[in-house]
Structures are given as structure tokens and as C-alpha cells.
Amino acid sequence: MSATEIISALRDKRTELADAIAHLERQVDRQRADLRHIDATIRLFDPRIECEAAGSTVPRTHNNWFRLGECRRRIHDVPCEATEPMTTRDVVAGVMEAKSLAHDDIRTRDLIHRTVLCSLNQAKETIERSEAAGNAVWRVISETCVAASLVCNEVIQKAGCREFTCLVGRPRKRNGTRYSA
């Protein structure tokens, strides 16, 4: 490939990126104008409100593997069936097996590992973390397993369901009725 072809391709790519940036800047300008109009409308109804103080929310990112709360349910199911504490890698393997995800894709496994580890760290009330041979090991608190099993069986019998994924250690709703572990 000659230098002129490379320069031409780079110029085309630069033009493409500059156009994309200009489009996004116009979009930001429109959004800012809409925000000013909404703030003005709010002030019409209540002049004491300071709209700038409201702040913005950070959008939650979702992944393609788990629905909202599903990873947390899965991480409880895997160690609940184990007789001894499991390493994070074992929990990830169990979750991936339960979801029928391929173990050979390194990127997917690493992303699932991060998601599972985050869920494990958030489940401090129901999953216990300890150290063994320099590795973090996890076990579901036994009372949680028993209580969750009893509640899930009760819900299954009352609802007449064949399949039910329980939320271990957290209050859950089923047909408007609240069950707690």
C-alpha cells in the first residue's frame, strides 16, 4: 500500500469522525435547549424550586446474560448446593453452566466473572466470604438456604407453579403476596 492511499484512508476516517462529533454536538445543544425549557416550565408551577440542584442520575448498565436480579439468584443457587465453600472461579463455572454459557470464550468468562464477583460482594447478608489458601471462598449461610428452600416450596405449592426461581435471603413478591426468608 502506498503512502498516498494510507493518507487518503486516514483523511476519510478523520472526516467521518469529525462528522460524527458535529452530529453529537448538535444533539447535545438540542438536549440542553429542551432542558432549559423544562426548567422554565417547572419554575412556572413553583418558582422556589432550583432545578440545577436536582442533579442527574447515572444510567444503569445491563448485560446480555442476566435479567435484573438474576445473577444474584444464580450465585445463591450454586453454593447452596455445595457441601464446602467454593472459590469465585467455581461459582462462576456453576453460574455459566446453569445459564448454558460457553466456557471456552475467555472474554465472556472474564465479564461473567466480574459480574458474579460484584454480586457476591453485594450479598454480604446471605453469603459469607472467607480465605482459604490465599483465595477467596464463598458459602451461603446455611440458615438462608433452609429458609429460602422452605419459602420457595411454600410459594410453589400456593401458586401451583412447576418452576420458580427464588430470591434467596430477600423479600419476594408473588401474585401480590409478600414472602420473606
% residues in beta strands:
5-15%
Compressed to H and E, one letter per element, the order equals: HHEHHEEHEE
Could you give the order of strands across the largest sheet? 1-3-2
Q: Total domains, how many? A: 3
Helix content: 55-70%
The fold-level CATH name of the largest domain is Arc Repressor Mutant, subunit A
Gap between N and C termini, in Å?
Answer: 67 Å
Short summary:
The protein is mainly alpha-helical and 181 residues long. The protein has five helices and five strands, in the order ααβααββαββ. The strands form two sheets. A three-stranded antiparallel sheet has the order 1-3-2.
Summarize the structure in words.
The chain has 181 residues and is mainly alpha-helical. The chain has 3 domains: 3-54; 70-141, Orthogonal Bundle (Arc Repressor Mutant, subunit A), CATH 1.10.10.10; 144-179, no CATH class. It contains 5 helices and 5 strands. The strands form 2 sheets. Strands 1-3-2 form a 3-stranded antiparallel sheet. The chain has a two-stranded antiparallel ribbon with strand order 4-5. Strand 2 and strand 3 (135-140) form a beta hairpin. It is flat, with a radius of gyration of 25 Å. The termini are far apart. Mean pLDDT is 76; it is low at 161-181.
Ordered list of secondary-structure elements with their pairings:
Layout: H1 3-45, H2 70-80, E1 86-87, H3 88-98, H4 106-122, E2 127-132, E3 135-140, H5 142-159, E4 172-174, E5 177-179
Antiparallel strand pairs: 1-3, 2-3, 4-5
What attributes does this structure have?
181 residues, Arc Repressor Mutant, subunit A, three-stranded antiparallel β-sheet, two-stranded antiparallel sheet, 55% helix, flat
